[in-house]
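Good day; I would like, with your permission, to put a structural problem before you. What I wish to show you is a protein chain and, alongside it, a tokenised description of its three-dimensional fold. I would ask you to consider whether the tokens describe a fold that such a sequence might reasonably adopt. You will find the record immediately after this paragraph:
***
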Amino acid sequence: MPRLSASTPLPTDVITPGYDRTSLKPGILHIGVGAFHRAHQAVYTDAALAKEFGDWGIVGVSLRSVDIVQDLRAQDGLYTVIARSGAGDSAQVVGSVVRGLSGTEDREEILSLMADPAIRVVTITVTEKAYGYDPASGGLDRSHPSVAADLADPRAPVGVVGYLVEGLSRRHAAGLPPFTVLCCDNLPTNGRIVRRLVIEMAGARDPALANWISGQGAFPCSMVDRIVPAATEETRTRAERLIGAEDELALDTEPFMQWVIEDHFISGRPEWEAGGALFVGDVEPYEKMKLRLLNGSHSLMAYLGQLHGLTYIRDVIAVPDYREKVRRHMVAVLHTLDPVPGIDLEAYQAQLVERFSNPGVAHSTRQVAMDGSQKLPQRIMLPAAEELAKGGDASAFAYVLAVWMAYLAKVAEISDPRAAELKAAAAKSAPGDPSAPFFEIPGLFPRALVENGAWRALVNAELEKL
């Protein structure tokens, strides 16, 4: 069977780009061209281009992988997104990605594009751990490998912040306006965090550059949402059946997707509203809602699943006792949220349970459980600290952290940047105060939690039950 390409004839029931791809030129550079971006921002861009065509093609950059770039080139940038639900499967071939580049092979070409005035927006999905963000200081973690490398040799960057700074430096030297930096990762106030990291790194090499970025740059915050499991051979087989061609880049996802963006762009943007994006003055209420209700519940289900041998999130939510624990967690989270304009929070919770239960989405608990040390501070620890500060009940958050610690003790191999520290803490855990070694890990927990003996006793009580 032939491989998907621009010349592939597609079945009439497959959604295809509603614009002339041969006329599409780059306007967006995206760092982190993995599954989530391709099933989310690239889909929104496809809709925007169909509604109002312009030079908004995406150059997809992978800082580490070469394989995905080679696959994009082999398929003329095309790939299939399969929206799955109990009602059946719907296939869309997305065309907004026009090129793929790899940081390991194409560094200079990437930097040249970042310095090109045609690139007006740089979007990012690299996961929380890739930024080199120190939650304790709010600035750069200078011990982070890519941060250390980019401070030592700023003109040959390897990390995302280093690329942004070098790209902006080249534009500054050329007398060009900066590009807009749009972070799409699950960091609270993500635009403000990335802005601070970029300015700090820029200041380390040239205070004038830092001042220019501070005065002229734009770093809008955004909130993204769509469940995108890791692709499998079954995914690729399904795509082959639906489109009549081989597709090494095919993705499964859910029908639901959401994107809330602060409307602050320097040199224009695509009409992402055509795909349903919502532009607002303040993203934070939406961001907090999603991080704490969806992502926090996801983490709880992942660790429950890993503890009890359940492969997928849908398997966990199908167990009545675990579904009740998720519901209890969501109720606790509601006390930490601000009003969210246009959102009925009761309906949102019910919708989440329905999404978690989707039989067509095989989202593995092992995948969701990764990188807990990077995810749980904003999903669980921060709301716990906020609730304790106002004298509220933070026992639901103590339960989630106890489940995480039990998972760290039980599962032999974990995927986490702080895996060695976490496994060492699990090995030192002892009756009486089993959580103590975890709270001793530098910079992991907020001080307010470390110093709250009564709340830590709740964590211990839950951990000993587990």
Summary: Residues 284-307 form the longest helix (24 residues).
